[in-house]
Specification:
256 residues; 3-stranded parallel beta sheet; 9 helices; elongated
Length: 256
């Protein structure tokens, strides 16, 4: 995989973070100085002339952060951009980006995990889809991206309930995942409810003080299901962070 090196400079202006990159310290500082001048003049506005770097920062501030997705999911966007997208095309103008550039980014990740390359494609597609919707570009270069060969491993929570039996007496808490581990906002897996019920039975028989935690897709609709199945600790991300009133969302989840 080609290795990219760059110098990154950031500035916060009017509560919004901007970032520039250069191959050298001098180039990065010059770009930062030019950006400051543009911001002072009120000249910065997204257009086809906007760089991918500038658009990513504006896109995150305008569309992703206010959407209420979890901090973990926000870190995923930053990781994929800063690690793979920005170093490759960050300084290109939006209107100059072609599907070839984006497919090349994906192709450099051939052989990596399916989860990694699919999430990288997701970030590319969301980033440029919104640029197209905002009429910053005429066509969406990410629309037809193909995943390269990758290693597909299942992260489904398929561990049998019986697997906890040797440990129930010695632990304080058992966690049952009800989504695929990796990122927030996924749909609750109802097929995990019998597992919760069975583990609760083991806890009652072998270690009544042990807590049973459920994480994944927990919201006001699914919370009563997992509590009825035997969970006494609930983990909620999107249902809280994505709510207009997080405090009220927590009260609802608690059944108050």
């Amino acid at each position: 995989m080609e290795k990219y090196t760059y110098i990154r400079k950031t500035i916060t202006w009017d509560s919004r973070r901007y970032e520039v990159r250069g191959k050298t310290e001098q180039e990065a500082c010059e770009k930062l100085a030019d950006l400051v001048v543009s911001l002072k003049r009120g000249e910065f506005a997204a257009s086809g002339q906007t760089t991918v770097e500038q658009w990513f920062q504006q896109w995150m501030q305008t569309y992703k952060i206010p959407s209420g997705i979890t901090p973990k999911s926000l870190r995923l966007y930053d990781e994929k951009y800063n690690g793979y997208i920005g170093p490759a095309i960050g300084q290109k103008k939006l209107q100059d980006v072609r599907d070839l550039h984006l497919q090349t980014i994906l192709n450099t990740q051939a052989g990596r995990s399916y989860s990694h390359v699919s999430k990288l494609r997701m970030v590319l597609q969301e980033l440029f889809r919104q640029a197209r919707r905002s009429r910053l570009i005429v066509f969406d270069p990410a629309e037809g991206l193909q995943l390269p060969e990758s290693t597909k491993r299942s992260h489904r929570p398929i561990t049998a309930a019986e697997a906890v039996l040797p440990y129930v007496k010695d632990v304080d808490l058992i966690l049952v995942m009800t989504v695929e581990p990796g990122f927030g906002g996924q749909k609750f897996m109802t097929d995990q409810l019998p597992k919760i019920q069975k583990i609760r039975q083991y806890i009652q028989e072998l270690n009544p003080d042990c807590r049973l935690e459920v994480d994944g897709g927990v919201d006001p609709k699914t919370a009563p299901l997992v509590v009825e199945a035997g969970a006494d600790v609930l983990v909620a991300g999107s249902a809280v962070y994505g709510a207009k009133d997080p405090a009220e969302a927590i009260r609802i989840l608690r059944g108050q």
